[in-house]
Amino acid sequence: MGEKGRRNHTEVTDFILVGFEVSPELHLLLFLIFLLVYVMILLGNVGMMAIIMTDSRLNTPMYFFLGNLSFVDLFYSSVIAPKAMTNFWSESKSISFAGCVAQVFLFALFIVTEGFLLAAMAYDRFIAICNPLLYSVQMSARLCTQLVAGSYFCGCISSVLQTSMTFTLSFCASRAIDHFYCDARPLQRLSCSDLFIHRMVSFTLATIIILPTIIVIIVSYMYIVSTVLKIRSTEGRKKAFSTCSSHLGVVSVLYGAVFFMYLTPDRFPKLSKVASLCYSLVTPMLNPLIYSLRNKDVKEALKTLLEKKNSLL
């Protein structure tokens, strides 16, 4: 079996992305939905980055993190959406072996980076609300840069490990991946290797990645809630909570979808696709909307930018 597995593994030159098993009549509708969502992702995240870079009022640690969050959202959705849209019109629905490796690597890189960025943003809100007088000192430009660089570094290390483990498996079953992009779990179903050690390592890696970020977020918000409840004025409490509501919304959507996907048994691949759709496309679309609609500074910066453009016309 081992010799056969190794031989078949080297012979794999491409995979087939099954995608969404719907009637051909619905392909156009799904393509248009994916296209609309992807256009909104591009406009929202590029717009958010442009606003943050052009408005000096947003030159703060919170918006530095938010700009990087928009960058990450833009790129990991771009790893998924174009190929998924192409496959609606492709008869073969194939993706090369190298293309599949690239999708697994890049998606893992950006999704893990996003988790660490959200933890850094929670810490930023904790310092801003619990230690406002020391905020500019503690959240220095150097620390912010280190937190962002550390997020990308952790994402890169995790991605290298996850990708190398996945593609050292022997693929001697069908080449058809029951998903709309290359992901580790659907690829495991195609393998004839013993997956016990692989799954244990994946579980350990996921725990090392997810647990610290969740702990930082939960502990930060425990201190934030405790501090806000001590504020006597209703207006003060409302203002303090409003600075955190957008971040909490983004965290809830992302982690809710991730947990739903990875807690869904393998025998329900359709549910996994729905959850994957939420955090690979819906979350990057919603993040700019959540931050722009609920953030006074961003709305004012957008208004200023539009007024400048109108004055030039």
Automatic annotation (TrEMBL):
PANTHER family, per the entry: OLFACTORY RECEPTOR
Keywords, in A-Z order: Cell membrane, G-protein coupled receptor, Membrane, Olfaction, Receptor, Sensory transduction, Transducer, Transmembrane, Transmembrane helix
Domain G-protein coupled receptors family 1 profile: 44-291
InterPro entries: GPCR_Rhodpsn (IPR000276), GPCR_Rhodpsn_7TM (IPR017452), Olfact_rcpt (IPR000725)
Any Gene Ontology CC annotation: plasma membrane
Molecular-function annotations in GO: G protein-coupled receptor activity; olfactory receptor activity
Organism: Sciurus carolinensis (Eastern gray squirrel)
Protein's UniProt keywords contain Kinase: no
Major localization class: membrane
Membrane topology category: Multi-pass membrane protein
Entry-linked Gene3D superfamilies: Rhodopsin 7-helix transmembrane proteins
Bilayer-crossing regions: 28-51, 63-81, 101-123, 143-161, 203-229, 241-262, 274-293
Name of this chain's protein: Olfactory receptor
PROSITE patterns to which the protein is assigned, alphabetical: G_PROTEIN_RECEP_F1_1 (PS00237), G_PROTEIN_RECEP_F1_2 (PS50262)
Similarity field: Belongs to the G-protein coupled receptor 1 family.
Subcellular location(s) of the protein: Cell membrane
